Amino acid sequence: MASVRRRLSAGWNRRSRIDPRLWILGACLLLIALGLWIGYAAALPVYSAPNLPWWVFAIAFFAASRLASIDSPRHGTQSITLAAAPFVVGLFHATPLAMLLGYALGTAAAAATRRPRAFWQTAFDIVRFAAFGAIGIWAFRTIAGSPDLPVWHSAAGAIAATAITVLRRAMSEGVILRPRERGSWMDVVNHLRAAGVAAGASMCIGLIAVRLIPVDRLALVPLAVVTFAVLFTHRAWVRERYDHEAAEFLIGAVDALAGRELEPSIVLLLNRARDIFNAEIAQLTVFPSQPAEKAFRTTVRHGKRDEVMVALGLGELDDVLEAETAGVIVHAGAASDPSSEMLMRRGVSEAMVALLRGESRMIGSLMVGGHLDARTFDERDLRLFRTLATRTTAILENSRMERSIARLTELQEQLTHQAYHDSLTDLANRSLFGQHIDQALRRSAEGAASVAVIFLDIDDFKGVNDTLGHAAGDALLVEVAGRIRACLRRPDTAARLGGDEFALLIEGVDSAIEAEHVARRVLDVLREPFTVSGTSVIVRASLGIAVADNSDANAASLMRQADVAMYVAKGAGRNRYVLFAPGMESEVVHRRKLRGELERAMELNQFILHYQPVVNLITGEITAVEALVRWHHPLRGIVAPGEFIALAEESGLIMQLGEFVLRTACATTLRLQQLQSTPLAVCVNVSVVQLNAPTFVEDVLAIVEETGISPDTLILELTESMFVEDTAIVISKLEALRNAGIRVAIDDFGTGYSSLSYLRRLPVDILKIAKPFVDDLGTGADEDFTRAIVTIADALQLHVIAEGIEAASQVTRLLSLGCLAGQGYHLCHPLPAVEVEQLLRQGGIDRSRLEAVPDTTEKRMPLRLLG
Questions:
Q1: How far apart are CA 154 and CA 140, in angstroms?
Q2: Best CA proximity match to 711, nearest among 695, 700, 724
Q3: C-alpha–C-alpha distance, residues 675 and 105, integer Å
Q4: Cα-flanking dihedrals φ and ψ of residue 579, to 5°?
Q5: Contact call for residues 12 and 340 (beta carbons, < 8 A)
């Protein structure tokens, strides 16, 4: 009973793998057959006497099918049969219904007595015969006409009907076999050629029988003897051919395994085994020879990539059999059957499996399973498979395989290392870093010391990739990783989490101060310039520190806190470290939301420019405008740059935004310059991120040339903090700009690292007095700083501009000190370009906002106007 269930289950599994086209074709043929038989064939009488009963044809079709010979031992799906002989006899001496009934019963009986065959195959054969048989009967009756006509009419009809049966076989070959490759189609063509010859010979036998039946039925006996003799001779020739192909296959298998390299040799062997058995899958599993080694499995499957020497755990050796070690055919049966479960995992319904047992140990297992056609494995296949397994065992049992397995074990260790380490820097990756944190936290729970995690992100690393190329960026990351590793003690861990983001695990931390000390040390070692592709690169980094402060800490929470702190460090100006504190998450969430809105704003062109005039404090004439970017937010309205510039620098969007500001400001100023006779300059602020870009000078000059503005009317404003480090690089860039005619201004002069020594060396043209010093004027406060700035500018022959003028009294004092140019809300607010255009047409700002020129008691010559 269990065997029956297994066969039914196997048949159902095979049916579930049928090409959907076969179901469609079968349904169409069934409809055609029903129509032909109900409307035509069922009512036809016998063509000519005698009228043979249905059981005669059942016996004849059973014998024709059961004694069939295989045409191709490799692709033995379709047999060469003598079914055309009883079919031709039935055309003459049976009713169509009797012949159909005889075919159905004879074919079903033959299928039941052979190797288990899927029910759908037999059913499809009967449906196919019903459809094409009806068509053949119609062709025969149409061509043959009346039995009284000359014999050649009926012979021609029989030939036409037999040709239709060959068409029926062609449909079997093309649909059931489902050939995938050119070679398969050639096999189909060759098979059909042989089937045509067999059908013709069988038809001739049938026509002879038709002539003998009315005359002398005993003469059919020698005809049958001759027919069966020819058939058995053909079967013997087929078996000899199969044995020849099997011998060639085994010789080829031995040659395949004799290759120099084990892996490709095994793949070649399995491909040949899959080919000879026309199977879907072939597998070879090699068991470990030493306890420390692993098992390895190689799988070749039709239409899929080969899986070569995949490491396995002992629990994955599911094709190991406890019995039948020489080789056995297994079927998908009951769910509790281990073999059935193994086949289901492979996606096949039948397989041949053998254990490879050597003299001293079990070497492995071999499996060939599934079918690319409708056949099943038989005893002949199993004998060949067992011989293959025996020879495979003998060849694999040598020292070369042992060396290969040892090498594969070493390779597996390398792959494991690669799975947990960054391929570029060889630091731990995120997965291994998280494991180390959890391990460190468990050790920390047993003692008093704590654990700290530091996240590090390189500032403006994208600029290095964009300007020097990704190869240079990778080289920089390797150098950064080396310096970070040098800052750590032996128990600590450095990791690369991806991109330009690194992480450090510090164990045995008594307080956050120790983690901060490590962070400062990392910042110090990174300040030394890196040489990448012949270019000196300065690396700045933002660090976030998180220290485990309770027993509930885990790797995920510590890494999240360090990430938040790092993000805060970027928002605070970068190139620094920040220690995580509760409440930071909400700030980071807000900044990340704002960053997303900022990225969309760049895509939707939501940025506009306002221009604040720089005014001649004597005449009120506008001598320059400062371009100030504004974000036209769809919900918040106009957003000032103070809310988003730092975030743009942090995200790298400042490069794109700065290019937009410079290009727009130059193009707008060129148009405004047409409205007055005196030259109008434009001041554009430059971010440190832009200045550090290696192609900064080239980008600026390209925009100047593109817009057509005169270079001497463009003023680039930089803050003092940009000149503190990398002075030589900054000077070289500024000199290149000045050589092209572009002027440079130091913005907010006096609030940074003012020094006469560097001011004398810098190629600058303008000093802008910071607003705090202007605020002191006219209020009785100390104005010595403002006086000193004006004196320095006078001595160095520099222009000077006062920023943040908010009262008329400040204008008076600036003029008395010799500063003739200024800007501020008292003089004019930043305006859209169209309103600046109106001011220019009016000749400048309202002069009532200017105080009278101070008297000459101030012994000072006024500085030159900006022009």
A1: 7
A2: 700
A3: 106
A4: -90, 130
A5: no
Task: Identify the CA nearest to 144 among candidates 53, 191, 207.
Answer: 207
What is the C-alpha separation between 567 and 593, in angstroms, rounded? 13
Evaluate whether 14 touches 119 at the Cβ level (below 8 Å): no
Distance between CA 519 and CA 455 in Å, rounded? 10
What is the C-alpha to C-alpha distance for residues 829 and 823, in angstroms, rounded to an integer? 9
The sign of the dihedral angle between the CA atoms of 639, 642, 648, 653 is positive
For residue 527, give the H/E element and its range.
helix 512-527
Euclidean distance between CA atoms 510 and 523, whole angstroms: 21
Of 307, 376, 21, 23, give the one whose Cα is nearest residue 179: 21
Token pair, residue 492, equals 């600590």
CB 85 within 8 A of CB 210: no
- Is residue 343 within 8 Å of residue 350, measured between CB atoms? yes
How far, in Å, CA of 669 to CA of 683, rounded?
10
Q: Can you say how many angstroms the Cα of residue 50 is from the centroid of all Cα atoms in its chain?
A: 73
The H or E element containing residue 226 is helix 220-257
Tracing tokens 């044809």 back to the chain, one arrives at 57
Mean pLDDT of 445-470: 82
Which stretches of 366-510 are DSSP H helices?
379-396, 399-419, 430-445, 461-468, 470-486
Tokens 């010789």 label which residue?
Answer: 251
The SS3 assignment for 547 reads: strand
Taking the CA atoms of 174, 177, 178 and 183 in sequence, report the sign of the dihedral they define. Answer: negative
d(CA 448, CA 510): 8
Counting Cβ atoms within 10 Å, is residue 135 exposed (0-12), middle (13-18) or buried (19+)? buried
pLDDT at 844 over 60: yes
pLDDT tens for each residue of 283-316:
988 887 666 667 888 899 988 888 887 887 766 7
Residue 723 β-bridge partners: none
Angle between helices 2-16 and 119-144 (to 10 degrees): 60
Which residue bears the tokens 């000078």? 697
Expressed in percent and rounded to 5, the helix, strand and coil fractions of the chain are 55, 15, 30
- Residue 372 phi/psi, 5° resolution? -90, 0
**Contact criterion met (CB below 8 Å) for 90 and 102:** yes
Q: Tell me: cis bond preceding 73? Omega within 30 of 0 counts.
A: no
The listed range with the strongest mean pLDDT (336-340, 377-381, 802-806) is: 802-806
> Can you tell me whether residue 855 is helix, strand or coil?
coil
With H, G, I as helix, E, B as strand and everything else as coil, classify residue 788: helix
> How far is residue 782's CA from residue 307's CA, in Å, rounded to a whole number?
82
Residue 24 has a CB neighbour count (10 Å cut-off) of 11
Q: Give the list of residues 6+ apart from residue 557 with CB closer than 8 angstroms, or none.
A: none
The model's pLDDT over 745-799, given as tens digits with 9 standing for 90+, comes to 988 887 655 556 667 778 889 999 888 888 888 665 567 888 888 888 888 888 9
Task: State the SS3 of 308-321.
Answer: EEEEECHHHCCCCC
Residue 92's pLDDT band, with cuts at 50, 70 and 90, is confident
- Under DSSP, is residue 631 helix (H, G, I), strand (E, B) or coil? strand
Q: Which amino acid is at 463?
A: G
Q: Residue 861 has what DSSP assignment?
A: P
> How many CA atoms, within 13 angstroms, populate the side-chain half-sphere of residue 582?
2
242-246: long-range pairs with CB below 8 Å, 24+: 242/70, 242/73, 242/380, 245/73, 245/74, 245/276, 246/73, 246/276, 246/384, 246/387
Residue with tokens 């793949």: 267
CA trace torsion 661, 499, 533, 646 (10° rounding): 30
Residues near 334 by beta carbon (within 8 Å), at least 6 away in sequence: 2, 5, 6, 9, 340
CA distance 282 to 272: 9
Nearest to 266 by CA among 298, 238, 222, 221: 298
Count CA within 13 A, CB hemisphere, residue 480.
Answer: 29
Determine the residue type at 632: H
